[in-house]
């Protein structure tokens, strides 16, 4: 009898049992971290949108907003690239900083749109997001190929959005918004399935798995925020 092979099988079975028990708790952490980030973003955005000083600082020139946007991209890149070397506490703190900074740059929403329409759009987004996340987490169909297509479509969406900054076409803006809704609806399902797959493949239920959960919550947070922003273009009512 090959005791080495027997030991490996036993270890794999033990690890699978551990992960199956820890999986529900890890998934709850994914959505808890995401909800925490959304609350931070919402509170900061509300405060910024109702502060004339902050609005003047950020929106009288493009410089401060550009710096904030680059800082956000830098944080996402840093956390994603260094997640294996960062402690869980440090990665969580960076996520908090990112969500607060993102709230600062989204303060214009509360200055431009009526509170009722923001709330309505939020609930529409939450319903759409929740449905697609459930689909992604429960479907047996492999969504990997769909994810590749959606990522390519996202690149095209970014290019089209940049072009429309100069064209300032209302029709193109509506088309871009509609496509954006479809892309981030699909990405929500894809990310939910990817998070489930990555957690089940984690070596154990320790810090490594929790870091996977944290990165997953960041991905879903970004899906939610972008889906909300594109839907707001359809359901948002201006203050004036």
From TrEMBL:
Organism per entry: Prevotella histicola F0411
Residue ranges crossing the lipid bilayer per the database entry: 30-49, 61-79, 86-111, 149-168, 174-192, 212-232
Xref: Pfam families: Bax1-I
CC terms in the record's Gene Ontology section: membrane
Transmembrane helix keyword on record: yes
Keyword list, A-Z: Membrane, Transmembrane, Transmembrane helix
Membrane topology reported for the UniProt record: Multi-pass membrane protein
Compartments where found: Membrane
Main location: membrane
Entries under InterPro entries matching the protein: Bax_inhibitor_1-related
Recorded family membership: Belongs to the BI1 family.
Name this protein carries in UniProt: Inner membrane protein ybhL
Tree of life domain: Bacteria
